[in-house]
Amino acid sequence: MKSKIQFILGAITSFIVVAILLYFAVLLSSEQTRENLGNRFLCSGQPCNVIFILADTLGAKHMGLYGFERDTTPFIDKFFGEQGIVFLNAWSNSTWTLPSFASFYISQYPSSITVGEILKPKTISFIDVLREAGIRIRAFTPLVPDVEGICDPICLAATGRFKLDEIIRSKDDLQFLDVVQWVQDQKQDSLLSKEPFFLFVHNFIVHSPYNPPESYRTLFDAPLTYPGSVTGGDLWLSNTGKENINPQEVERFQRQYDQELRYFDDLLKDFFEQLPQEVLNTSIIILSADHGEAFGEHGRVGHGGSPYQEELHVPLLMKIPQTQPRIISQPVSLLDIAPTILGMFNLNSPESFLGKSLVSPVKDIDIPKMIVRAETTRGGPLLADFQNLDSTNSIITNQEIAVRLGKWKLIKKLEEILEVYNLDIDPGEQRNLILQWSSLTKIEQSAILPLFHELGLGLPVP
Ligand SMILES: [Zn+2]
Hints:
Distance between the termini: 89 Å
Helix content: 25-40%
Mean pLDDT: 83
CATH class: Alpha Beta
Bound molecules: zinc ion
CATH architecture: 3-Layer(aba) Sandwich
Number of domains: 1
CATH superfamily: Alkaline Phosphatase, subunit A
């Protein structure tokens, strides 16, 4: 009997010990995950830095993570694909630099922004909010204003929301070295080393002219001879008449673009190898682009002139310390970048922001389905777009609009021409469902209906 009591007492004691151990285990585990599940973003117990890399003209369709067949982005695929947050369906809100930048800085659609506003904004940009909150800000870009703060419209778009002393001129191929140097300088200052920073890293490595380093010019089984770089003029000439685009020339353009992308991927690999580990442990990394690039998919090469996926679909990749990898297929847009970055600094967005913070989906919390919208200038930017700096004109002229909800995409072109695509089964946008509207089921038609409403249109009459 005594041994039985001892057994029972022993069992109770063991149970209590196990319960206490379990309690502390749960406590410890919740402590470890609280950084990701609570209301505040913390990285290794301290406020996170954010490093936002914006690769001008980087189209998602050319990257392995997004299904491209060439080995253009082995490092990005591994770094973000295995350990990061992958947004499969992110859109830029326009298809060329000026409106796209202006849009994401103030989280509003390009058609509501005038060029003058970029320089003298009536509305608040996320940079303004960061500055107000005392976050250290640095922008690295090849485009910088002169000493009086004057620059052309593209430069204005890229840097207009930063103060002169927040910008560091940085050539494309040396840019990441400059960033590493800046970070190391900060680390040596014990006061600064504990304050969070926001770094904006903008480069034109994959933008035309396509001029990959010599050692990259034989990549991708290139049988074509490359006499030199492909210039913006080459691309412009290709667009002067749809039927004049020579498919072999377009293939040549694309291979050089892909070679440059591989070069960018290698630079990025070197960058993350050189960045101090403690900075990686305390920094959120975001990689995206202001628009993609076309290679004849819809009769154009380059960017800025059409609302199709090759120009709109951009990468949106995040690497967040102590956060599980996740793939998010819900469409989002660059309009959401500004509120997301503010959320990562635990800051609220101004009421004027139209984008939604992506902090919730990053934390594995679903967000409601959203309509995303992009606006572009048919045929590409016009000279007039650059001459209206002080005007109240929209930065988008000859506007064409694309809206997306889930797999459905509606395009409204000039002259009220409409196109509808099911991107799940027709990602190349080759079958305009408007032309076979009556063949869609009632469920499909009603799923597309919100897109027509978004553009103030009724459903098509069969
Ligand atoms: Zn651009």
